Amino acid sequence: MSEENNTVEKQFSIQKIYTKDLSFETPNTPAVFTAKWEPAVDFNLATNVSPLEQNLFEVTLKVTITVKCAEMTAYLVEVNQAGIFALGGFNEQEMGPMMGSFCPNILFPYAREAISDLVTRGGFPQLLLAPVNFDALYAQHVQQMQQAPSTGTIN
After folding, report:
1. Whole-number Å distance between alpha carbons of 95 and 47
2. Contact 74, 32 (CB under 8 A)
3. pLDDT, tens digit, for every residue of 85-135?
4. SS in 3 state form for the chain?
5. What is the pTM of this model?
6. Please, which residues bridge with residue 4 across strands?
């Protein structure tokens, strides 16, 4: 009998998508509305994975954006977009890309929409975030993790 017949079927499903945390600050209003609008945007992404039960995981995508005009902070927006995902039948090598790339890719459009809505409601020009290549970010993270042990070796 071949080993192919013993393989476990892979299962993936989205159980829930929700906004876990939301923050919008405009520390220099109304002065920022009278300044010339030449924004400088600082964009940061982070992910966190928390196991819940067997084959059930919470993945949180944290998006932080700081926009400055000259030396003034126009606004700071932070969204923690989360989802509960059921994954079964994936081996350890497959779980990393699923949690570090596939799930954040599902969450990003929700975070993007929340950010755009908050910025517009705050009285600022619409902010549309460009798509993010989570596959490339995950590959870069894996490469950095592989290089880290070699730099910290103690003899």
Report:
1. 14
2. yes
3. 999 999 988 999 999 999 999 999 999 999 999 999 999 999 999 999 999
4. CCHHHHCCCCEEEEEEEEEEEEEEECCCCCHHHHCCCCEEEEEEEEEEEEEEECCEEEEEEEEEEEEEECCEEEEEEEEEEEEEEEEECCCHHHHHHHHHHHHHHHHHHHHHHHHHHHHHHCCCCCCCCCCCCHHHHHHHHHHHHHHHHHHCCCC
5. 0.85
6. none
